[in-house]
Amino acid sequence: MSKFSVLITLFAALATPLIMARFRITRIPGTVAEIIMGIIIGKTGFDLIQPSDTLTYLANLGVIMLIFLGGMEIDFSIFEKGNSNNGEKSPLGLAFGSFMSVLVMSIILSLILYYTGIFDNFILATILVSTIALGVIISLLTEVGLLKIEYGQTLLLISAMGEFIPLVALTIYSAIQQKNYFSALLLPTIFIVAIFLLRRFKRVYVFFDNIDKATTQLDIRLAFFLIFTLVTVAEQIGAESILGAFLAGVVMKLLNPKPDTQEKLSSMAYGFFVPIFFIVTGVNLNLRTMLKDEQALILIPIFFVAFILAKSIIFLILKHRFGNKFSFAAAILMSTTITLVLPILQVGQNLKIINEAQNGAITLAAIITCIICPMIFNKILSSAKSQRDEENQSME
């Protein structure tokens, strides 16, 4: 049965882009379509997929590969640019200011949720509301070809902070709640290991180029070695595996791999592992049970609005650099959240801070952001590009 479930999942991954192409569905990102496909074939829909260790493992590898590629997508040259000549902030400065504003807004919204009795854990609410779906945003920015320009890199950095900082906070919070203070103190270990791996392989990477062959693919082997080393270290010290995956991507990027290395890794990830993660996310969502719970129904719109409001402040930070339309589109896109929400809710449920109904409701609110926000972003982006093209033609 487990092999049959994997087969159906792989067929769904193949069929999704074909269906989108057949019906000319262009405004829904591929990752969002995969979540919807998972809902259709999963518990909510036809219930064709049965949970299995194999499928769970492949889905976990999918999110690990997705976050690893997120680390590799960051252009570290922007860290060296500082402020531009006309006094404008660098993408790094804009991203930092944007996420700090998001964090402040998340604290305010979480206090409201706490004092109104809607959600009784202030810290967990803050971590949840401040998260940004780095994986989904990477996929979308890749699809629309924005990763190589300043606007795309700024959005990538905001989303990276929106995943990395809450992830570290979750690790520390979980350790404290479980009174595992030693685990929290060990958190710097993973950064030390990442630095060691970078220094260790920096010199030998040139040697790899000299002896690499088509049958050895040393760069790919090194990438997977880095992933599994840092993921293992993260898990051993009680941190989330995706923290190790992100650092592995950063290390790989700093080793200055050949351009085709990232292309090969992206092909493997987006061709196999990543679609499984998004489809399984939809498969595991049981809307039928959840919609019968009144408490869950109330939490869905509340958290959806909270996700949007927390990121709305980004518009004010970016509008002076990118204009109203692109800044509004950025604020909407940054409201997308799912990747880190899932482990946060799992930790909350394991610690008995939230129940299954709350887990499902917040998950659904996050999935709705993945469906609605990228669609709005694409629509605004298309409108802005069309307007810019018309202005350029009129000037000619």
Gist of the model:
This protein has 396 residues and is mainly alpha-helical. It is 78% helix and 0% strand. Helix 1 crosses helix 12 (259-283) and helix 5 packs antiparallel against helix 7.
Q: Can you describe what's shown?
A:
It is found in: Membrane. It comes from Companilactobacillus keshanensis. It is a multi-pass membrane protein. With 396 residues, the chain is mainly α. Helices cover 78% and strands 0% of the residues. The protein has helices spanning 2-22, 30-41, 53-73, 91-115, 122-130, 134-144, 150-177, 181-185, 188-211, 218-236, 241-254, 259-283, 287-290, 294-312, 314-334, 341-350, 356-395. Helix 3 runs parallel beside helix 11, helix 15 crosses helix 17 (356-395) and helix 16 (341-350) packs antiparallel against helix 17 (356-395). The longest helix is centred in the C-terminal third of the chain and has 40 residues, at 356-395. It is globular, with a radius of gyration of 21 Å.
